[in-house]
Amino acid sequence: MAKRALITGITGQDGSYLAELLLSKGYEVHGLIRRASTFNTSRIDHLYVDPHSPDARLFLHYGDLSDGARLVTLLSSIDPDEVYNLAAQSHVRVSFDEPEHTADTTGTGTIRMLEAVRLSGVKTRFYQASSSELYGATLPPQNESTPFYPRSPYAVAKLYGFWITRNYREAYGMFAVNGILFNHESPRRGETFVTRKITRAVAAIKAGKQDYVYLGNLDAVRDWGYAPEYVEGMWRMMQAEEPDDYVLATGVGITVREFVEIAFERAGLDWEKYVRFDERYLRPTEVDALIGDNSRARQKLGWSPTIDGRGLARLMVDADIEALPHAGHPWIDKVRLESWITPTFSNAGMA
Ligand code: NAP
Ligand code: F7E
């Protein structure tokens, strides 16, 4: 019998790569999607097969992490072997604008999923998308023993998700794991995360369709890895004999500035001519440096990443340059979208 998995957040970057991976391994894959007034499945459209077809192995269900009763019903009817809880309001700066919504989706949403597993009585393994943002102000290198010091409403919500997942493992004997994933990116990365914002801007500037890109703090250090390698790590955590928590990271940290330099250089451009500062992209509290120690995942899961932040900058610029001619006007409109987000806090002193 094929294994059955349920993925929340299947329309996101990670959800789309994980769905691909599980389908390639022969799983039947179920995904939770939100009803929206526009289509929100562009990252998984290539995987879609008409559910009436005997070949269909991907099934989508409407639902929302804010709706606990729906989650119980879905868990009961799908009866999955593995649940990957990837859904979240995942943008750190937006979490300062929408802290209550972030707490509800990213924090309380996790307990709704765990309760749905418990109340439905299904026998399933559970993956929680935890984050290196938990470490916040704690200095690198960070591993599974490093104390947490969250620095945003997003990180505080993820802290709740981390501990409630661990609590359900201990209280109810659930196979529940936390993947503490450091930043991971790809050509499918959301357009307002810094890497993708930069690489899309490089492509648009190179094509003469954009003049500048406005950024915030260039000094932040991040340990950027490649998303398809990280979803492989998620799956390995779920195949282990015992449930545990794991850091996935490359161990290589670079600044936003270095990512910018490499990205522009890849397109033969001098970044200093095109990058401008805008204080609205600063955060009220910043996470200065995240660099992970992935020893446990290497030793226990045999997981080892091959692409770090420098390689990613080149890979993502190439992909955005390639995609630009096919993108049309809406693509450019999205490039401009972020420039009219209203600043909601006074940060003049932080510039
Ligand atoms: P993403 O691209 O922002 O995707 C988030 C997903 O969550 C989307 O499918 C979104 O649906 C869905 N979602 C949001 N609110 C929801 C709600 N109330 N109910 C149901 N679904 C909802 O995020 P990602 O980069 O793939 O990350 C996946 C997970 O890993 C997230 O939990 C994120 O916080 C965490 N994480 C990410 C990173 C990283 O570097 N990427 C690192 C550590 C942890 P729509 O498409 O409809 O918006
Ligand atoms: O910011 C700086 C910003 O928004 C990275 C999420 O996937 O990873 C992600 O969170 C850095 C920060 O990602 C701009 O201040 C400068 O220091 O790409 P980001 P993030 O906040 O690290 C973690 C692990 C998650 O769990 C999250 O879900 O870049 N930065 N200028 C900027 N950031 C943005 N977005 N836009 C700028 O203009």
From TrEMBL:
Its cofactor is NADP(+). Residues 6-314 form the NAD(P)-binding domain. The keyword Lyase applies. InterPro entries: GDP_Man_deHydtase (IPR006368), NAD(P)-bd_dom (IPR016040), NAD(P)-bd_dom_sf (IPR036291). Keywords: Lyase, NADP. It catalyses: GDP-alpha-D-mannose = GDP-4-dehydro-alpha-D-rhamnose + H2O. GO terms for molecular function: GDP-mannose 4,6-dehydratase activity; NADP+ binding. The keyword Glycoprotein does not apply. Coiled coil: none annotated. Its EC number is 4.2.1.47. GO terms for biological process: 'de novo' GDP-L-fucose biosynthetic process. HAMAP family: GDP_Man_dehydratase. Catalyzes the conversion of GDP-D-mannose to GDP-4-dehydro-6-deoxy-D-mannose. Belongs to the NAD(P)-dependent epimerase/dehydratase family. GDP-mannose 4,6-dehydratase subfamily. This is GDP-mannose 4,6-dehydratase. It comes from Mycolicibacterium gilvum. The lineage of its organism: Bacteria, Bacillati, Actinomycetota, Actinomycetes, Mycobacteriales.
